[in-house]
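RECORD TYPE: inverse folding
INPUT: structure tokens
STRUCTURE:
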């Protein structure tokens, strides 16, 4: 009897972690897509970007056995409620946002911008249901604002999402993963803010700070959660940039936001 009880106790101890850890999504197909179709450190219109081969992906979309098509199929059948940790959930939905942005362009390719009137006649694709996860359809706006920013209140998420445009934070070269999520996001943030054409630029001997309009688009959250965009970016800028920001004797301007697609065909 004692032996039976011990065996039952051991079984329960082994079962509980399995139930609480959750089941992460398999990112192998997505990793191969990024490896095969994204060219980092490319230049389009003088801006350094990670360029995407949308034409090649549009070709993959026509084949049911391609990594692109099978990835979308995997998402359709995956239950996000099975994700365990906060990091797994953030990584998953950041990856899904980026996949959905790619799909928005691929669905209507060729287009010159995610804001093409071919996608949405008003040039506003954000509320279009574009990707299916676990049997439910989601738009880019739902993923970014309702699930990610409202759900997790972590502004570093902005460093992970890519809207398929030149002025966006670059598409990461690898899928975001729970174990290294924050390091990935922060590395992307540093890289973004070091890009003077789309992240941050200081001119006039520190008198003018030019910021990405991302910090203007979501000003409410940056003010509420970080005491303002300038306070938020301090850990992610160069020592010289941080010193200039701490001086405080400057005005803030915003860089032009360029919605042209980060399409590899535009690489110079």
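DESIGNED SEQUENCE:
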């Amino acid at each position: 009897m004692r032996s039976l009880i011990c065996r039952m106790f051991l079984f329960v101890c082994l079962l509980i972690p399995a139930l609480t850890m959750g089941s992460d999504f398999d990112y192998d197909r997505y990793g191969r897509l990024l490896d095969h179709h994204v060219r980092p450190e490319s230049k389009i219109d003088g801006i350094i970007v990670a360029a995407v081969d949308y034409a090649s992906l549009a070709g993959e979309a026509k084949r049911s056995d391609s990594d692109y098509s099978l990835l979308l199929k995997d998402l359709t059948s995956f239950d996000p409620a099975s994700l365990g940790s906060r990091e797994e959930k953030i990584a998953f939905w950041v990856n899904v946002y980026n996949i959905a942005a790619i799909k928005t362009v691929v669905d209507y390719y060729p287009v010159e911008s995610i804001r093409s009137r071919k996608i949405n006649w008003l040039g506003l694709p954000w509320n279009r249901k574009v990707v299916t996860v676990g049997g439910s359809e989601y738009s880019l706006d739902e993923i970014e604002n309702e699930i990610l920013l409202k759900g997790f209140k972590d502004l570093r998420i902005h460093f992970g999402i890519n809207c398929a445009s030149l002025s966006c934070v670059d598409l990461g070269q690898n899928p975001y993963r729970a174990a290294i999520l924050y390091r990935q996001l922060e590395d992307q943030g540093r890289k973004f803010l070091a890009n003077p054409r789309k992240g941050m630029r200081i001119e006039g001997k520190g008198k003018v700070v030019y910021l990405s309009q991302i910090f203007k688009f979501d000003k409410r959250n940056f003010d509420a959660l970080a005491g303002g965009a300038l306070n938020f970016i301090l850990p992610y800028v160069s020592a010289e940039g941080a010193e200039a920001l701490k001086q405080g004797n400057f005005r803030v301007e915003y860089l032009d936001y360029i919605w042209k697609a980060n399409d590899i065909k535009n690489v110079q």
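NOTES: Confidence is low (pLDDT under 50) at residues 8-20.
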